[in-house]
Write a structure and sequence with these properties.
heterodimer, A: 7-stranded beta/alpha barrel, immunoglobulin/albumin-binding domain-like, 2 domains, 9-stranded mixed β-sheet, 20 helices, 9 strands, globular, B: alpha+beta, Immunoglobulin-like
Chain lengths: 543, 641
C-alpha cells in the first residue's frame, strides 16, 4: 500500500482492473429575477462554494502535479444554464462577498474561543479562495473552468436529460423523452463546447426505448443501478463489472454497490465519521439574531450560512468543536481504506471474470463538499493514492474503457432507477402522482402544436419555443422528488403549477389564433430563460 | 475605591474570600485584582438584594436608544453612555478622552469594579461621573440565571412585569448552564423560554413539547440577548399578531394552487408512508395467486364529478366494436373544460390556472411503478360518461378496469393471455394503484363496463407497460443523500423556526412574509415538528437520525420538555480621531471613516482584559483605555410540585 516508489501510470498492462469515478452534478433550474433574495437560489450558491469550486480546485492541483484526473462528471443542462446566467453569477458574487464579511466578523468574534477560532480562520480563507476562483480567475464563468480542466486532463464531461426529467414516467409520449435528450445535447454543445459521449440518465431512470433516443444523439454510454444491469436479459456474464451493449448499440455501465455504500451508507459509510464536520449545526441557526440577521434570508428567516463549527461527534446532541486538521487526516485514512478495498475487490473479481473488471462508482457530486464537507479532500486523496501508491487498479473513465474493449455482450434491460427500492416509487406515489396526467397531456399538446405550427415565425414561434421551455421545466424530476420528501413541498408544487399554467396559457393563445400577449410572453421569457436557442420543432415528428 | 480593609488582608485571605464568592479566575489573580474582584462580587450581591427589593424598578429590558440598539451587547452590560449621547458618543467604557489630555499614555486601565450587575451599573454609573482618569469601568457580566419553572411565570408574556427576570436570583446552581454558555455555537437559544408561553395563545401546540429531541434542527436559536433583554416588547401586540396572521395566511397560500382547481392531492391525506410502498414488499408472492387488488383509489376531490344522467341524451350502445366511435365522439360544445386558463387572467395569477380537465377524449394511461405495482389514471369524456351511466342504469353492472397480460402478443381485444377486473367508482376521472400480474409481464388495461351477466364492453384501452424484473436483494436501506433533500429540509426547519423566532426577534416589526412566496413556512408537509415527518421518507436512511443533531447543545432540559439556553457576547465600541490607528488587544482594527469602531466578541466565562489603544496618524499621540469584563454564569432550577 505504501509502495511510494511504484509509480506506474494507469493504462499500463500491469493493472488488474479499473476504477471509474462518476460524479453527477445537478441542481434544478431555480432563478427568480423577480425576487431580490430568493431562498432556493441558495442551493446554487452553496453548491458552488462547497462543491463545485472545491472539486475544481482539487482537479487543478492534481493536474499541476501531473496526477491523472480520470473522472467523469455530468453537468446537467439546468445546472449549466444557471452557471452561465449573468444574473445568478452576479448574485453569487454578492453572496460570497457577504459570506466573506461574515467570516471576517467570525474571526473576531471567536477571538476568545480557542476551540473555534482556527475554524473561523479556515472558513475565511476558503471563502476568499472561492471569490478568487470565481471572480478573478474565471470571470464568473465556472463552465469555462470545467472546460479548461477537461481540456487539460482526463476529466470527461457528460450530459443529462434537459431538465432532469424522470424518463421512465415521461416515456408514455416518446417525443417527450426525445426532446429531453435532444435539448440536452444541444445545450451541452453550446455551453461546454463538445458533443457529449456519455449521459447520466436522471436518477439512473431507464425504461426500454430510451436507448434509441440516446443512439440518435450519438451518445455512447449511460449508467444504471446495479440491478438495472444485473436484471438484463440475458443476464450479463460479468455482472456490473463490465459494461454491456443495449440493442441500440449504446453501452451501459452498472453501479458497483460495494463502493457506493462505503460512501453512502449509514453503517459503513465514511461521511458519518465523528471527526467530520457536522452538517446541521450552523451559526445561521445558532447565533444571536441581530448579529446574524444580515447574513440569513432578508425576511429574517434563519437559514444555514455555511459556517459550522462542530464535528459530528456521535449520536449525541453535545457536539464537539470541529478540528480541521484531524478531519483531514481522517479523510486520508478513509481514502486509503477505499483504495485498499477496491484492490481487494479487483483481486477477488479476477478469479470469476475472464477480463479486467471495471468498478464504477457513481455519486451525486453535491455529496462531496456540501454534505460531506471533507469529500473533495477525500477524492483528492483517492486519486493520489491510486496513482502514487499502487498499480493494481487504474483509474479510467467509461469512455476510455469503451475505447479499449470491443467484445461487449448485448443485453436487454428493463425499467430501473437508483431511487429508493430501485424503481419508480419515489417519483410516483400519492404525494406526486397527480402531476403525470398534466405532464402527459401537455406533452401531447406540445407535439400537436409543433405539428400544427411547424412554419410559425415571429411571436408565435417565440410562444411555441417558450411552451417547450415551460414543458421541460415542469417535467423536472426534482419537483416530484421534493413532493415525495414531504417537507417544503410547496415550492415544488408551485413550480409545477407555474410551468404548466404558463404552458397552457401559451398554448391557448397560440391555438386561439388571436395575437399572443407579447408583454407577458417577454416576461416569462426573461424568467424562464433556460435554453435560449431551443426550437420547439424538437417536438415535431422524427420517428 | 479600594477598600483599605481589603488592602490589609493577605493574599491567602483574599483568595479565601474570593472562593466564598465563587469568583471566576481567582487563582490567577494578583492581590489588586482579587480586591477588585471581591469588591465587585460584593457589589453584585448588594445589587441583587437591591433589585429584589425594587420590584417596581424599570424592566431590565429597557433598551438603549434606537441606533445603539444594534450595537448593544448581548448581555446588557455596557451602555454606560448617557442615553442621549449614545448616538454620537463613543460607547463602551468610553468616555471620549478629553482632547486636552495629551498624556501620551492614558492611565493604564484602572479597573473600576462595576457596582453590581450590569444594569444596575449602567444606571448608576451614569450619574456617578467616573473620574476622568479612571478610564475603564469594569463591566460585570450579568449573572445568567435560570429558573426553570415554566408554568409559574409566563414571564415572557408579561414583560412589563419586570420581576420575572429578577425572580431568578436564587442560589446559584448547576454549572451546566455554564458549559452551555461557553461554546459560542452552543449558545443560541436563549429566547426559547418565552416561546412556549406565548405560543399557546396564538397557535395551538408548542412544537417544542412535541419532540424535544428532534426539535433542535429547527431551532431558531434566538439570540440570548433576546431573552433577558427583550422581554418587554416581545409580548406586545405585534408578537402575537405575527404568528397569528402567519398561521392564517399559511393555509391560504397553499390553498391557492390547490384551490386553483388542480387535482392536487393533499399530501397529508396519508401521513405515513405511502401505503403502496409498504405493501409491495412481499416480493416472493406469486402474482397469480393474488387477485388484483386496488390498494386505494385516488380521486382528487375536485375530480369527483359524477355525471348526471341526462334523460335526453341519446343512448350509446357500448359494444366493443364501437369503441372507437365512442372514444372519438365529438365533444359537445356545451362542455368546455372549466379550468382552461382564461387568457384574461392576469399574469400575476397565472400559476393558479392549470387545466383540471382535458377531456377531449377518453383516455387511460398505465405507468410502471415497480415490479409489484402499477399506476393508472383515466379520463372519460362527457358523452362517454353519459352513455355509460345510461347503460349501467338500464342493464346493471360496473365500471371496471380489466388488466390484461399481453406478453408476447399484439393485443387485438381478444387475445390476452389472462386478465383480472377491478371495479371502479363511476367517475369520469380517477387513478389507481394496483398489483401487477407479475414481473416482466406486458400489461395493458381497458376501462369498460362489465354487465351483470358478465359481459365486458371496453371503452378505452391503455398503452402497454412491461413490469420490471425485480431487484434481487436491492438493499432497502441503500438510500442516498441528496442536496435537494437537505435543502428542502433545511428550509423547512428554518421556516418552522422562523415562526417562533420571528415573533421573538421582531416583536415590533411589522409582519413580513416569510420568504418570497409568502408564509409557506408551514406548508402542508411541515407539521409542527419539522422533523417529524422527515425521517421515514428521507433519503438519509438511518444516517440522518444520528446526524440530526439538535443545534442546541445540552440545554437545560426539564422532564417536562422545558428548557433554556443562554449565552452572552460583548460588543466593544467607541470612537477616536478619524485616521488614527487603533488596536484592540494588540490586534489592529479598522476604523470607520468617521472614527468609530465596533467589534463583537463571544464572551466565555472568565475575565477579559481588553486594552484599546489609539495612536494618532502622526504617531505622536497615544491613548489607551482598557475595559475589563468578567462573565460568570450560574444557574438554578426549580421543579414543579
Amino acid at each position: 500500500m505504501r509502495a511510494q516508489e511504484d509509480r506506474t501510470s494507469p493504462g499500463k498492462s500491469t493493472e488488474r482492473g479499473y476504477f471509474a469515478l462518476v460524479l453527477h452534478a445537478h441542481l434544478p433550474f431555480v432563478r427568480h429575477p423577480e425576487h431580490e433574495d430568493f431562498l432556493e437560489e441558495r442551493w446554487l450558491y452553496e453548491a458552488i462554494t462547497e462543491t463545485y469550486i472545491p472539486l475544481l480546485t482539487v482537479f487543478e492541483r492534481l493536474i499541476e502535479e501531473k496526477i491523472p484526473v480520470a473522472v467523469s462528471m455530468s453537468l446537467t443542462p439546468t445546472l449549466t444554464a444557471m452557471l452561465s446566467d449573468p444574473l445568478l453569477q452576479a448574485r453569487y458574487v454578492r453572496h460570497i462577498d457577504r459570506l466573506i464579511e461574515l467570516a471576517e466578523r467570525e474571526v473576531q468574534r471567536t477571538r476568545w474561543l480557542p476551540e473555534f477560532h482556527p475554524t473561523a480562520l479556515h472558513y475565511l480563507e476558503s471563502f476568499r479562495h472561492c471569490r478568487t476562483v470565481f471572480v478573478d480567475r474565471y470571470k464568473r464563468d465556472l463552465l469555462r473552468a470545467f472546460r479548461e480542466v477537461a481540456a487539460a486532463s482526463r476529466l470527461e464531461l457528460m450530459t443529462c436529460a434537459a431538465t432532469h426529467g424522470f424518463l421512465p414516467l415521461l416515456s408514455i409520449n416518446p417525443a417527450a423523452v426525445r426532446a429531453q435528450i435532444k435539448v440536452a445535447t444541444a445545450s451541452h454543445r453550446r455551453l461546454l463546447g463538445a458533443s457529449p459521449s456519455g449521459i447520466w440518465l436522471p436518477e439512473c431512470g431507464y425504461a426500454p426505448g430510451v436507448e434509441r433516443e440516446l443512439a440518435a444523439e450519438k451518445i455512447r454510454f449511460f449508467l444504471v443501478d446495479s440491478h438495472g444491469l444485473l436484471n438484463g436479459r440475458p443476464r450479463p456474464r460479468h455482472g456490473v463489472f463490465a459494461p454491456a451493449l443495449t440493442p441500440a448499440g449504446v453501452a451501459v455501465f452498472g453501479r458497483d454497490l460495494e463502493s457506493s455504500r462505503s460512501v453512502w451508507s449509514a453503517d459503513v459509510g465514511y461521511p458519518g465519521d465523528p471527526e467530520y464536520r457536522d452538517f446541521y449545526r450552523d451559526i445561521g441557526f445558532d447565533l444571536e439574531h441581530d448579529y446574524i440577521h444580515p447574513y440569513v434570508h432578508e425576511s429574517g428567516l434563519r437559514v444555514a450560512t455555511g459556517i459550522k463549527y462542530h464535528r459530528i461527534t456521535g449520536r449525541t446532541d453535545d457536539k464537539q468543536p470541529y478540528r480541521p486538521e484531524a478531519a483531514r487526516l481522517r479523510a486520508e485514512e478513509h481514502a486509503a481504506d477505499f483504495v485498499a478495498r477496491r484492490q481487494h475487490q479487483v483481486r477477488q473479481l479476477e478469479r470469476f471474470i475472464g477480463r479486467k473488471p471495471i468498478v464504477v462508482s457513481p455519486y451525486d457530486a453535491e455529496l462531496f463538499g456540501h454534505w460531506w464537507y471533507e469529500g473533495p479532500m477525500f477524492i483528492d486523496f483517492v486519486l493520489r493514492k491510486l496513482h502514487l501508491e499502487q498499480s493494481e487498479i487504474a483509474p479510467i473513465t467509461p469512455l476510455e474503457y469503451l475505447e479499449t474493449q470491443s467484445d461487449l455482450e448485448t443485453v436487454e434491460l428493463s425499467f430501473s432507477s437508483w431511487g429508493h427500492r430501485g424503481f419508480g416509487e419515489v417519483w410516483l406515489n400519492e404525494s406526486n402522482d397527480w402531476i403525470y396526467r398534466h405532464l402527459h397531456r401537455s406533452a401531447d399538446r406540445m407535439v400537436a402544436a409543433a405539428a400544427a405550427h411547424g412554419a410559425a415565425t415571429g411571436v408565435v414561434q417565440r410562444a411555441l419555443n417558450q411552451m417547450a421551455r415551460e414543458l421541460l421545466l415542469a417535467q423536472a424530476s426534482d419537483w416530484a422528488f421534493i413532493m415525495a420528501g414531504k417537507t417544503a413541498v410547496e415550492y415544488a408544487v408551485r413550480r409545477t403549477h407555474e410551468h404548466l399554467a404558463r404552458f397552457n396559457r401559451l398554448r391557448d393563445e397560440v391555438e386561439s389564433g388571436l395575437p399572443v400577449d407579447e408583454t407577458w410572453l417577454a416576461e416569462i421569457e426573461s424568467k424562464d430563460n433556460i435554453f435560449p436557442d431551443i426550437d420547439f420543432r424538437v417536438y415535431g415528428s422524427s420517428e | 475605591m479600594k477598600s483599605g480593609a481589603l488592602n490589609s488582608k493577605s493574599l491567602a485571605q483574599l483568595k479565601e474570600m474570593a472562593a466564598e464568592l465563587d469568583i471566576v479566575g481567582r487563582h490567577k489573580m494578583g492581590k489588586d485584582q482579587l480586591i477588585d474582584a471581591v469588591l465587585a462580587a460584593r457589589a453584585k450581591v448588594a445589587a441583587r438584594q437591591e433589585r429584589l427589593a425594587a420590584a417596581s424598578a424599570r424592566p431590565l429590558s429597557a433598551r438603549p436608544p434606537a441606533r445603539t440598539r444594534a450595537e448593544a451587547p448581548a448581555s446588557k452590560k455596557t451602555a454606560p453612555a448617557p442615553k442621549g449621547k449614545a448616538l454620537s458618543k463613543p460607547a463602551v467604557a468610553t468616555r471620549k478622552p478629553a482632547p486636552t489630555v495629551k498624556a501620551p499614555i492614558a492611565k493604564k486601565a484602572t479597573k473600576v469594579p462595576a457596582k453590581g450587575a450590569a444594569v444596575a451599573a449602567a444606571k448608576k454609573a451614569a450619574p456617578k461621573k467616573p473620574q476622568p482618569k479612571k478610564a475603564a469601568p469594569a463591566v460585570k457580566s450579568r449573572v445568567a440565571k435560570i429558573v426553570a419553572k415554566p408554568a409559574a411565570k409566563s414571564p415572557a408574556a408579561k414583560p412589563s412585569r419586570k420581576p420575572s427576570g429578577k425572580l431568578a436570583l436564587k442560589a446559584p446552581a448547576k454549572p451546566a448552564a455554564r458549559t452551555a454558555a461557553k461554546a459560542p455555537a452552543k449558545v443560541r437559544v436563549a429566547a426559547k423560554a418565552p416561546v412556549p408561553a406565548k405560543k399557546p395563545a396564538v397557535r395551538k401546540p408548542a412544537p417544542v413539547s412535541v419532540k424535544p429531541a428532534a426539535r433542535p434542527l429547527a431551532k431558531p436559536a434566538p439570540a440570548i440577548k433576546a431573552a433577558p433583554a427583550k422581554p418587554a416588547p416581545a409580548p406586545k401586540a405585534p408578537a402575537a399578531a405575527a404568528p397569528a396572521s402567519k398561521s392564517s395566511a399559511k393555509p391560504a397560500s397553499f390553498a391557492r394552487p390547490a384551490a386553483a382547481s388542480a387535482p392536487v392531492k393533499v399530501p397529508p391525506e396519508r401521513p405515513s408512508k405511502p401505503a403502496p410502498a409498504a405493501k409491495p414488499v412481499s416480493p416472493g408472492r406469486p402474482a397469480s395467486r393474488t387477485p388484483i387488488r386496488p390498494i386505494r383509489k385516488i380521486v382528487p376531490r375536485r375530480l369527483k364529478r359524477q355525471f348526471e344522467l341526462t334523460p335526453s341524451a341519446p343512448p350509446i350502445n357500448l359494444h366493443a366494436g364501437e369503441l372507437d366511435e365512442a372514444a372519438t365522439a365529438p365533444r359537445p360544445a356545451t362542455r368546455v373544460p372549466k379550468a382552461e386558463p382564461a387568457p384574461a387572467a392576469g399574469a400575476a395569477r397565472e400559476h393558479e390556472s392549470i387545466p383540471t380537465i382535458y377531456q377531449s377524449d377518453d383516455r387511460v394511461v398505465l405507468m410502471p411503478r415497480d415490479p409489484q405495482w402499477l399506476y393508472c389514471y383515466w379520463e372519460l369524456s362527457e358523452p362517454t360518461m353519459r352513455a355509460l351511466q345510461e347503460s349501467l342504469d338500464r342493464f346493471g353492472g360496473d365500471l371496471v378496469v380489466r388488466v390484461h397480460d399481453v406478453t408476447g402478443v399484439v393485443y387485438d381485444g381478444t387475445n390476452g393471455r389472462g386478465h383480472h377486473d377491478i371495479v371502479l367508482p363511476r367517475q369520469a376521472e380517477g387513478s389507481w394503484y394496483f398489483q401487477t400480474l407479475g414481473e416482466d409481464i406486458d400489461h395493458l388495461i381497458e376501462v369498460g363496463i362489465r354487465t351483470s351477466d358478465g359481459k365486458f364492453l371496453a371503452i378505452v384501452r391503455s398503452n402497454t407497460v412491461r413490469t420490471p424484473r425485480a431487484a434481487s436483494g436491492y438493499p432497502e436501506s441503500d438510500q442516498r443523500h441528496s442536496m435537494l433533500t437537505d435543502l428542502a429540509q433545511e428550509r423547512a426547519a428554518a421556516e418552522a423556526s422562523a415562526l417562533e423566532s420571528e415573533a421573538l426577534a421582531h416583536p415590533s416589526s411589522p409582519l413580513k412574509p416569510i420568504g418570497p412566496h409568502g408564509p409557506q413556512a408551514a406548508g402542508p408537509g411541515i407539521p409542527s415538528s419539522p422533523l417529524g415527518g422527515w425521517a421515514p421518507s428521507s433519503p438519509f436512511g438511518p444516517y440522518g437520525e444520528g446526524l440530526l443533531a439538535p443545534p442546541v447543545v445540552t440545554p437545560e432540559v426539564k422532564e417536562r420538555g422545558f428548557w433554556l439556553v443562554v449565552d452572552a457576547e460583548l460588543i466593544v465600541y467607541g470612537a477616536t480621531v478619524p485616521g488614527s490607528r487603533l488596536k484592540i488587544q494588540g490586534q489592529p482594527m479598522e476604523l470607520r471613516t468617521d472614527g468609530t469602531f465596533s467589534v463583537r466578541f463571544a464572551l466565555p466565562d472568565g475575565q477579559q482584559v481588553i486594552p484599546v489603544e489609539s495612536t494618532s496618524a502622526d504617531g505622536i499621540d497615544r491613548l489607551e483605555i482598557t475595559p475589563i469584563v468578567e462573565r460568570r454564569t450560574e444557574s438554578s432550577e426549580e421543579s414543579p410540585e
